[in-house]
Amino acid sequence: xxxxxxxxxxxxxxxxxxxxxxxxxxxxxxxxxxxxxxxxxxxxxxxxxxxxxxxxxxxxxxxxxxxxxxxxxxxxxxxxxxxxxxxxxxxxxxxxxxxxxxxxxxxxxxxxxxxxxxxxx
Length: 121
Prior knowledge:
Elements: H1 2-5, E1 12-19, E2 22-29, H2 34-52, H3 57-63, H4 70-75, E3 80-87, E4 90-97, H5 100-117
Antiparallel strand pairs: 1-2, 2-4, 3-4
């Protein structure tokens, strides 16, 4: 996880929220650490651009497997919008679509991520 994110995964908290039109991936430091916050923000911006291009190699590297839903998300990338935003101690990427097949894939991906990371949301 640290190789992919640039921060200690145990000093940070992931959230994977399923939303009506897609979802949200948030990563924040648990404590104050300005360098780690900057690293998270850079990582999340890279994730936004990679996912928009249909590249899901980072989660595949972290989880050591193809993640559920990413085949559809890659194939239907033109129908999915990814938006990065800063958070107080990190950053988030929101995922949105109006396409039912893409929406189902996004939910599958987020729920798999949540389970693997044992995230709160």
